[in-house]
Design brief:
Layout: H1 3-19, H2 29-35, E1 39-43, E2 49-56, E3 59-65, H3 70-86, H4 88-93, E4 96-99, H5 102-106, H6 115-130, H7 133-142, H8 150-160, H9 164-175
Parallel strand pairs: 1-3
Antiparallel strand pairs: 2-3, 2-4
The structure holds zinc ion.
The site of zinc ion (ZN) has 6 residues, from helix 3, strand 4 and helix 6.
Amino acid sequence: MKQSKRKSIQSQVGELLAEHNVTSAPVPVERIAKALGAQLRFSPLDDELSGMVYVKDGTPIIGVNALHHPNRQRFTIAHECGHLVCHRRAITKEIHVDKSFTTMLMRDSNSATGEDEMEVEANLFAAELLMPASFLALSLKEYPIDIDDEAAITALARKYKVSAAAMRFRLGNLFA
Ligand SMILES: [Zn+2]
């Protein structure tokens, strides 16, 4: 991803958080999705499906797999909000379906093109939204943790209502 794109996603998320007076974790992601005009629909889906997003008659619809862990649902909602903010034209043209994000999270963003690039952007949006760098800096100032300390990462992830894997990846990206 280009540095300029990264910066623009970071500032879009920062504005969104400021606009809704969100200053601490956990970020109320459902409230933010609704503020973006989206309707949330939770329904049981196949396990490999995380969710989907599309625009119908001008209204964005975010579908979430109701069978997934609440933390994963939060990541899905944040990811779909990313598509809504960054890729509105694409999701108006056709429904966008998301499978597991795990492999995508780990993929090198430099090699991404087209569809992949949209995923990388939506994942960055989600990480910025659920684990804002400024919030994390404050958390770590209060309670410094070691990147290899699994228990500490799990506790921090619980506070932010994200998976430990997502938190570990985020901390690695930001501070390693
Ligand atoms: Zn996606």
